[in-house]
Specification:
mainly alpha, carbohydrate metabolism, globular
Length: 181
C-alpha cells in the first residue's frame, strides 16, 4: 500500500488525515484486503474467523463499504463498532457481527470489576451478543517495547480468573467466538 505507508513500510495514524482529506486510494486498500485474505488462507488453510483492523481503520466511512462487501462476499463475520456507525452515519448491511462491541476493557485500571462493568453495560442495552476488545499476552521482547505492555498481564489474570466464567454466565452470556455467529 504505497500511498498508506511511510518509507519504512509502516502504517501510521496519518491514515485518518488522508481519509478526512479524501486522499485514500480505495483500489489500493481493496487490493491490500484481498492480498491479506489470500495470504491468511494460504498460510492457515482456512478463512479467518472474522475481519477487523488495527485501530478500527475499517470503520472509516470511506473504507467501511469495501470491507463490508468483501466480508459478505466471503461469508465472514465483521467486527462492527456500532458507536462509530452512529457517530459517522455509516449504513450497515452486514448481518454477521456481534450486536455490540465494547473497547472499555483497556488501560491501566484493568480489573475483574471493570470487565464485569462492561458486561453489565451490554446487558443494560439488551444485547444478546457482545465482543469485548482485549489484548491479553505474556510479555516478550517485542511487547516490552510497545506502549501497551504491562496491562496485558493484568488482562490475562482477569480473563483466566477462577470465577470469571460463572460471572459471565450469571449475566446470561456464554463465551464464544465469531464462529458462533
Amino acid at each position: 500500500m504505497p500511498s498508506l505507508v511511510n518509507e519504512r513500510g509502516e502504517l501510521g495514524k496519518w491514515l485518518w488525515e488522508r481519509a478526512e482529506s479524501a486522499m485514500l486510494d480505495l483500489d489500493e486498500i481493496y487490493n491490500e484486503l484481498v492480498g491479506q485474505y489470500d495470504k491468511f488462507t494460504a498460510v492457515f488453510g482456512k478463512a479467518p474467523t472474522h475481519i477487523d483492523s488495527h485501530h478500527h481503520a475499517h470503520m472509516l466511512p470511506q473504507i467501511y463499504p469495501l470491507v463490508e462487501a468483501f466480508a459478505q462476499s466471503k461469508s465472514i463475520p465483521l467486527r462492527i463498532d456500532r458507536q462509530a456507525v452512529d457517530r459517522q452515519g455509516i449504513p450497515l448491511r452486514c448481518d454477521r457481527s456481534t450486536e455490540w462491541f465494547d473497547s472499555g476493557f483497556y488501560g491501566e485500571a484493568i480489573s475483574e470489576a471493570l470487565f464485569l462493568q462492561v458486561l453489565d453495560r451490554a446487558d443494560e442495552r439488551g444485547v444478546g451478543s457482545v465482543e469485548l476488545m482485549c489484548h491479553p499476552a505474556f510479555l516478550d521482547k517485542t511487547l516490552l517495547e510497545s506502549k501497551y505492555c504491562y496491562p496485558r498481564l493484568a488482562e490475562v489474570e482477569v480473563l483466566t480468573a477462577s470465577g470469571i466464567k460463572n460471572a459471565i454466565a450469571e449475566r446470561g452470556y456464554r463465551l464464544g467466538s465469531f464462529l458462533d455467529l
